[in-house]
Amino acid sequence: MDAHSRGRADEIDPADQWVLNPRTGNYELRLDRSAGQSAPVSRPRGATPPPPRGADPTRGGERRSGAAADAPPVPGQRRRRVAEGQGGRNGGGEPPAGRRKRKTAQSRRKKALMWTGGVTAFVVAAGAVGAYALYEHFNGNIKTVDVAGASGGGFKKGQAFNILLIGTDKRTGDGNAGYGDKNSPGHADTTILFHVSADRTNATAMSIPRDLKTDIPDCETKTQEGTKVIPGETDVRFNTSLGQAGRDPGCTMRTVKELTGLTVDHFMMADFNAVKEMTTAVGGVKVCLAKPVKDKDSKLNLPKGESVVAGEQALAFVRTRHSFGNESDLDRIKVQQQFLSSMIRQMKSDETLTSPTKLYGLAEAATNALTVDTGIGTISKLSDLAKELVTVDPKNITFATLPVIDNPAEKIKATVVPHPEKAQQLFTLMKSDTSLTEVKKKEQDAKNAKAGAQAALLKGPRAETNQVRVDVYNGSGIQGAAQNTINWLQNEQGVSRSTNKSNAPEKAALTTLTYAPNQADQARKLADLMGLPATALKQGTQEAGAKEPMTLILGADFKGAGVPLTGPAKVPDIDKVEADKKVCAA
Fold this sequence. Notes:
28 strands, five-stranded mixed beta sheet, disordered N terminus, alpha+beta
């Protein structure tokens, strides 16, 4: 008797007996032990498994045909359904012997929430994939680019990170050539720097206008022929940092770092198909319009009020430039932020998280449309990313746009430049890991803490500079920061007992000075010399030995030796969209 026939015994559907062995990474045929068939049959690694439990939606007991029926999200084993009219065991309503009790919706929801809840389409899809362990299938979908400067992967607890989300206008995919410029290598059409806080409680998504005038640095690109250095340009549009002159996403990453001072750890890039396919996979995204729109250019045609868009209409919604505001790219960015906020809410809703079919479709669509750096270029690593983001509540995800002004060098205004004050304020907020949704509370907390600590400092004595002992660690991410500080302390301030301890164990968002109670006079003196805010001083509980040094860790807020630090930056007056808020595009 062959494996197929043996599987039919004891009412087991053989199509559902292929399961993933996590120890080998292979699919194996698990036959029912009650029939005396316990030996697993191995399926070659990477082979597509047969349709599993929950993957094949039915209507009236009939199997749906087509691609959906061929794409199973969950390998597993199930008992075949008892024929209608036979009832359960002994002909009654009791379930058949050995049939597992169906898990409650609440149980399934908890499991899904453990693995999902990302902040973008890409991240949510990665979490869904991790939950259902279809590694080999989805790994084959993901495209990677080996770029210079990307992190090697891994996300350390207590360390903030930055992901660059890039939407390219390259006309790849079915039905996209008609949008014009079909032979272009593409640009950085939509770019969002996604900053995730060290404690994983909040995130800031900063959109960068494509028409921003900026400098593009020299960048290395890796090709089959080897590494090639592409010369930079000055005073050009930001969107040319990708695609033009052979620039890869790593060039866009380096341009963002030059612009903001924030290190970009990874990138994720998608094309037009990502919007069309992922919105379709989740059953559409709710959008709201303050007025009816019929745009002949983007083909957007929606009534006033709330609508659900997917596919071509979803793409038209995020591409339109002539339907809202003053028809500028800045107003298009606002609409895109509203759309992404709604998509996040849809993906984190129960109707998506508890639907294996939707999760599978979303994962399939996202991984097919997704290009990432090699540091996160596997389902396993994307799942690690998703698990880091699972605690971020939509109410603590804030979309903002890099503050800009019209380019003063132009008579006919076509481009923009960073706002001379507000842009730097926003960059400082992100560097200091300050949430835009909680900034006022943090400002007040900092003021209160600073006032109390400074009052104590004013009352206490100061040590002489030659009595100050301090070990300096570099957690700022700025090369040479610790040594530069040591040189300044010893040569200009007379703090001879200062030592460079090289890099801190991990990057730090804020500069801190840790000292023992009997070192308070030294801490006061060093705080005076360096301009440390009182919030940077952390007093321990154990007394220090006579020659034991204090510990100074330079954080991302460190601006240079001798440059005083400040507390949390003042939040700039900018437009923001919080992901849990419903806004109607006007």
